[in-house]
Amino acid sequence: GAIDPGLAKFLARAFAEAKEAGAPAILLEIGTLGGSLDAALEIRDMILASRIPVIAFVKERAWSAGALIAIACHHIAMAPGSSLGAAEPIPTTAKNVSACRAELEATAEKRGRNPLIAGAMVDAGLELEGIVQKGELLTLTAGQAAEVGYADILVDTRREVLEHFGFGDLPTEVVEPKKAEVLARLVTHPVF
Fold it and tell me: Could you tell me what percent of the chain has a pLDDT over 90?
């Protein structure tokens, strides 16, 4: 869903529980059109600081703030038919584009991914031969993401993701938001 401060707080609790339980990995299932940049940055920083490997599973789309979160993860799995990108900030001022571009590029660089591909998701002024023309924002299909090194694997299910990364035989725990966290998400939803 939408990236909002309530989601960041829920994920902070989930990451703390995973650390306390000695979890070997964290799987984030992503399906979002985007949301709050502040919340996305908080989540990005949480992922980059995690000593536990974090795997993004893009089930539908990871657009805008969702692209930043996915790129921050140690690994990215994508479902066929999903997409990643379209991260131009609103309002689209030179300052916002510059800051967001640097943030996505630095995040991609940290994870060993081509930073210019992340930059082209934010800045339509970038042209990458054979990938995106100048004047267009980059949004990758799952297949394109695999071709350029932004998706490690294309799979349909959570089980396939876990098996691919060697966690298929381990027990899994799904962390659900508490009632207070659901309420916080309603109150902090970007539409309101």
Answer: 87
